[in-house]
């Protein structure tokens, strides 16, 4: 059963889980996606996990995003900070509503960027993350303690949007903050491919749900 509703100003979909050993997934779409976009991916990568999928609240030429940008690859960092706080508030309210432990974020492109920002600014909101084609979201990241939260970063060697050094800088930033980083660079561009799916599926299989909500 899929529920579509509004919590904390976010239109979203929620699918209850059937496997309590799997942490819930917070599905964060790329530019132009919506709350339905990553549900099939979540089902394929983590069968039995609860799925929580919000729609980004910012519109760019009619396309939903999770925060504003000034140009491709140039973020409105004040908006990044604001919107990551809103997303953390949504996660907290959704956890209370649905009785969930902290989720693992699964984000693609813009969704991966807001997930990375949320990890840095509101680490209590997430149990970890799969970041597919992310960039550094904040030029001056805050000091934070990620307490060994697991993070998988999947970058593309031929990505025309995310320079390789930018992806490496994000991995280094999260590692300095205490995250357990696995960073893989694949021989592909910005799009999602089968190698991403295989790596993400295996990584998620290794994760375990928190003992308590």
Automatic annotation (TrEMBL):
SUPFAM superfamilies: alpha/beta-Hydrolases. Residues 143-181 form the Peptidase S33 tripeptidyl aminopeptidase-like C-terminal domain. It comes from Methylobacterium durans. This is Hydrolase. Keywords: Hydrolase. GO terms for molecular function: hydrolase activity.
